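Predict structure. Chain length: 76.
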Amino acid sequence: MTYNRGVGVAYSSPDSPYARITVVYRCPCGAVVSEVGRHAAEGPEGWEQAGAEAYICAHCAEMKRAGALPTSPASA
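Prediction complete.
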């Protein structure tokens, strides 16, 4: 697994008078969660920042701390 995937961002309908930001976080393991609103860019609760624009889920973060998570595609 690698941790250099970007974070997806989607905006609400342009017809809406209130623009809202939705950020979709995707962990390399396949876990997905979205956050809506002004704090969406802070990362989901329990997830860990793994790069400038990358996050990993709580499960993978725990495995990373235990040294059980591969860090490069060659070791995956």
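Summary: The beta strands are 8-11, 21-26, 32-36, 48-51, 54-56.
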